[in-house]
Design goal:
This protein has 10 helices and 15 strands. By secondary structure, it is of the alpha/beta class. It has one domain: L-arginine/glycine Amidinotransferase, Chain A (5-stranded Propeller). The protein has a 3-stranded mixed β-sheet with strand order 2-1-15, covered by helices on one side. The radius of gyration is 18 Å and the shape is globular. It binds arginine. The site of arginine (ARG) has 16 residues, from loops.
């Protein structure tokens, strides 16, 4: 693993963990997008496509200003590329994931070792485990909302709503559970993305009536960008925000205009090979630098100066 410095954490640049897709494939099915037979039928083509598409995402994120850490891929763990599922991170504190399906449970030990290394390098401070029996698939289901200073927790398919109280106890912020309604949108980040300005890009049909009511109660109508089915199914909500750039696989013209109007630049970088596994841009990254306190530009500069002189 090549770790970019403790000082990354104070540079004001989004700091992301990724895993190259050397061993990526669809060899089992744990969500409705995954069809191992159709992957096998396309032979090596899709593997090559995945390598190119992942490199395109990495380059787009770096060009937008993100600082990237990459971990070593592992044979027989094709979904290790989806680092969003590794953990929930806030204020340099990490809650390690526990996966629902045996196919992904072997990733837990690998991610635990990665975070131990990040702690040794000074990127994070603490790592903790979930209580026995509680399932939580990391930031894929638990999304930090910096404006509202709370987490949204998708539950019903993968993560348990009962993780909420532990997360609040460990990370000190409220956690609002959002029960998911459709198996095609089995992780929260497949249908829900909070933009830095506090606007929410989401697919309402992916949520139960109770979840939609919770969203309506917390997000003002002018801050809700509802996706249509076509954008939802190309995983336009599975986007990564780096400063004012939104990186995603693809989206409609109308969504692009709605995002432009709010001051964002949209960068489309194709990730269809990963959609065959039920993932896209956001799933392939994990933010390491989320903070519960909003830092002023001045204190960020001060911290950066202190880090580079130390
Ligand atoms: N095949 C993976 C799974 O089913 C995809 C995970 C996508 N990750 C995400 N954060 N939505 O677990």
């Amino acid at each position: 693993m090549n770790i970019h410095a403790p000082r990354a954490a104070t540079s004001g640049r989004p700091h992301l963990l990724m895993c190259p897709p050397r061993h990526f494939a669809v060899t089992y099915s744990i969500n409705p997008w995954m069809d191992p037979q159709s992957w096998a039928d396309r032979g090596g083509n899709l593997h090559g496509e995945a390598q190119r598409q992942w490199a395109g995402l990495r380059d787009a994120l770096a060009a937008a200003g993100a600082l990237l850490e990459t971990i070593e891929p592992a044979p027989d763990l094709p979904d290790l590329v989806f680092t969003a599922n590794a953990a929930v991170v806030l204020d340099r504190k990490v809650v390690l994931s526990r996966f629902r399906y045996p196919e992904r449970q072997k990733e837990e030990a690998i991610f635990a070792a990665v975070f131990a290394a990040l702690r040794d390098c000074g990127v994070i401070d603490d790592v903790c485990r979930l209580p026995a029996g509680v399932i939580l698939e990391g930031a894929g289901d638990c999304i930090w909302d910096a404006r509202r200073r709370l987490f949204w927790l998708g539950c019903g398919f993968r993560s348990d709503a009962s993780a909420a109280s532990f997360l609040t106890q460990q990370l000190g912020r409220p956690v609002l559970a959002l029960p998911l309604a459709q198996s095609r949108f089995y992780h929260l980040d497949t249908a829900f993305c909070v933009l830095p300005c506090g606007s929410l890009m989401y697919y309402p049909m992916a949520f139960t009536a109770a979840a939609q009511a919770a969203i309506d109660a917390h997000v003002a109508p002018e801050h809700r960008i509802a996706l249509d089915r076509a954008d939802a199914e190309r995983f336009a909500a599975n986007a990564v925000c780096v400063h004012n750039t939104i990186v995603l696989s693809s989206c409609s013209k109308s969504l692009r205009s709605a995002l432009h109007e709010r001051g964002y630049t949209v960068v489309q970088t194709p990730l269809q090979a990963f959609l065959r596994s039920g993932g896209s841009a956001c799933c392939l990254t994990l933010r390491l630098d989320h903070r519960s306190e909003v830092l002023s530009a001045r204190s960020r500069r001060r911290q950066a100066a202190a880090a580079s002189s130390g």
